[in-house]
Amino acid sequence: GAASKGDYRHFMLKEIHEQPAVIAATLEGRLGAEGVLVNGFGSEAQALFPQVRQVHIVACGTSYHAGLVARYWLERYAGLPTQVEVASEYRYRRVVVPENTLFVTLSQSGETADTLAALRFAKDNGYLASLAICNVPGSSLVRESDLTLLTQAGPEIGVASTKAFTTQLTALLLLTLALQRVQGGEAPAGLIEALRGLPEAVTRVLALDDEIESFAEAFAEKHHALFLGRGAHYPIALEGALKLKEISYIHAEAYPAGELKHGPLALVDSEMPVISVAPNDELLDKLKSNLQEVRARGGELFVFADESVALEAGEGVRVLRLPAVHEALAPILYTLPLQLLSYHVAVLKGTDVDQPRNLAKSVTVE
Ligand code: G6P
């Protein structure tokens, strides 16, 4: 049943391995021959979406990181100015809402107190409509929003969110393409096909688990780690750092790689492993020079890169190759090795993986 670990040692590992199936379920029935089906967002979406001129996204924790990725997608593919904010900040400041702004909340549980309060606050703030992307049907967030897109992750037991995050990303890509479509745009070449193939691509990345596990030993004795990414992979670096903090209690920070020289480089030495997410996108050359800066200071590097990237492993540089994928899907794919890495580090450290100290699955009080 849903609440059993089956053959897995922890719920988190089970949930990581469920990702191909739950991503497929989140896509199910939402892609037509011509692209994303707009009515999947609710019967009013067909009338509301063409009016959207801006998007405000509000969420907490891992869900917030999904929102940060969506900003890159919405601006790049749908041309919609997008703001993303943590709910606990959003709800206590004066927010200026331009006309025709769509308010989007992201939540696994649909019961996070700050996110719910932000939605209630937004109701009086002149938004065009509210949309909840949520994993729990019938949750407070779903009941109180105008539109809903349910992620189909199923029950998530591990406190550290995994499958809820990648299904949120999948849903946010659907949202991007739906908004683009109703505004007369065309989906980027090959993306709809690539989306259909996403569950299979995820399966291929999960098959790299032994290699990822072999990286974990280098972290178990460390006290700090630095995650680097650029563009839409900066939020993936943030999520990787959050996972490591949550379950292995190793202090981890994430930086957009271009900011390295503005501070964190001072911390880099042989005691500071650096994890870098380096798919083959337009920022790769820049990222490569950031990586040289880390090597020059004795930092041990762990690079997750596209199979086509010319980047050699060597002394102090370990490289894990991921299958090539449509650039829009790369943030989803590159999440997986970071989840698995944190998981294996936590197992080595012997922490309570599914119920890390001091944390709750759902924070329903402020
Ligand atoms: C808690 C959980 C996180 C989660 C966050 C937001 O902090 O431990 O895993 O990302 O709440 O939860 P939500 O249910 O709103 O996505």
TrEMBL record:
Catalysed reactions, semicolon-separated: D-fructose 6-phosphate + L-glutamine = D-glucosamine 6-phosphate + L-glutamate
GO biological process: amino sugar biosynthetic process; carbohydrate metabolic process; fructose 6-phosphate metabolic process; protein N-linked glycosylation; UDP-N-acetylglucosamine metabolic process
Sorted UniProt keywords: Aminotransferase, Cytoplasm, Glutamine amidotransferase, Repeat, Transferase
Catalytic residue positions: K361 (for fru-6p isomerization activity)
GO terms, molecular function: carbohydrate derivative binding; glutamine-fructose-6-phosphate transaminase (isomerizing) activity
Cellular component GO terms held in the UniProt record: cytosol
Protein's cellular compartments: Cytoplasm
Keyword Ligase recorded: no
EC number: 2.6.1.16
Domain SIS: 45-185, 215-356
Enzyme class: transferase
Assembly description: Homodimer.
Function comment: Catalyzes the first step in hexosamine metabolism, converting fructose-6P into glucosamine-6P using glutamine as a nitrogen source.
Name the record gives this protein: Glutamine--fructose-6-phosphate aminotransferase [isomerizing]
Gene name of the record: glmS
Shown residues within the full chain: 244 to 609 of 609
